[in-house]
Amino acid sequence: MSSPSGYEALVQGTAVVRRTDRSVLRLRGADRVTWLQGLVTNDIAAIATGQRIYSAYLTPQGRMITDLWVVAAVEDLLLDVPAALSAALAARLDALIFAEDVQIDDATESMAVLQVFGAVAGEGTDTRRVEGVIEVPALEFGVPSCAAYVPVRELELFVFALLRTHLEVGLDALDVVRVEAGMPRFMVDMTEDTIPLEAGIEDRAISFTKGCYVGQEVIVRVTTRGGGRVARKLVGLRLEGGTEPPIAGAAIQAGDRAVGRITSAVFSPRCASVIALGYVHRDFTAPGTSLEVHHDARSLPAVVHALPFVAPTT
């Protein structure tokens, strides 16, 4: 019997992925929760030890500096952030500490991030014997998984224990599942020019009942006075005419009118077609809208598709 592909292992819940695209910042000190609560968009104070919450860190103009997961550990908070931004974010956040009892450590070299897929991460393995691991349930990829924060000194032991029941899978396969789940990625589908409302992450990343945070005024103004209307929105697109995904930046058109661009595109085995995420003008966001994607000197028919492309499993 042949081994399943990486993609199959992901959707079947038998995969482990080293998240080399993610890094960890550690926040210590008695004021860590109240201090962070005033900076990011979600309600950090609402999570209990062993839980995590998705959030964004904005400029005063409401544009994204980064997205992040905040993990409540016993004695500190872990910030799960894009690896390419970890050093700059650590310095930026450190500069905002004045009299508060908060210390920020860049734990990139000491803590690894993994995604372990399965209804019960590590079931039937010896991972529970590995010390210092923090595991938090997750469903952002549409398949039950957990985010595992593992001391680097224990990383190979942790992965070895999982390989009895799990297949180690790379980031390329994970990206297919990510797009199927309709989950935008910072530095790919979201940038420093993005307002969270454009990316459609407000339901996951923003609390509309917590106190003030940086950029809140812009978010509230657009939501309450503007009815949430923004000039462009991230949508799903299902493409026809082949199995080769268009490149990021490929133009999206409605007839002769340029209305947007592709940010991520993959071939989805479960959809049996190329699917993509991209920004389009707000007049073209309704599911079923017919558009064209210009790729490799060709115009490929595309239809706006509701997100996610694939319903999550439980």
Please give a structural write-up:
Helix 1 (6-12) packs across helix 5 (171-180). The two termini are 27 Å apart. This protein has helices at residues 6-12, 32-37, 86-94, 155-162, 171-180, 196-199, 202-205, 216-225, and strands at residues 15-18, 22-28, 52-58, 64-72, 77-82, 103-106, 111-117, 134-138, 145-151, 167-169, 232-239, 251-254, 257-268, 273-281, 290-295, 298-305. It is an alpha+beta fold and 314 residues long. Strands 11-14-13-12-15-16 form a six-stranded antiparallel barrel. It has a five-stranded mixed sheet with strand order 8-9-7-1-10. A five-stranded antiparallel sheet has the order 3-4-5-2-6, covered by helices on one side. It folds into two domains: 6-180, Gyrase A, domain 2 (2-Layer Sandwich), CATH 3.30.1360.120; 232-308, Aminomethyltransferase beta-barrel domains (Elongation Factor Tu (Ef-tu), domain 3), CATH 2.40.30.110. Helix content is 18%, strand content 34%. The model has no long low-confidence stretch (mean pLDDT 93). The chain is globular and about 55 Å long.
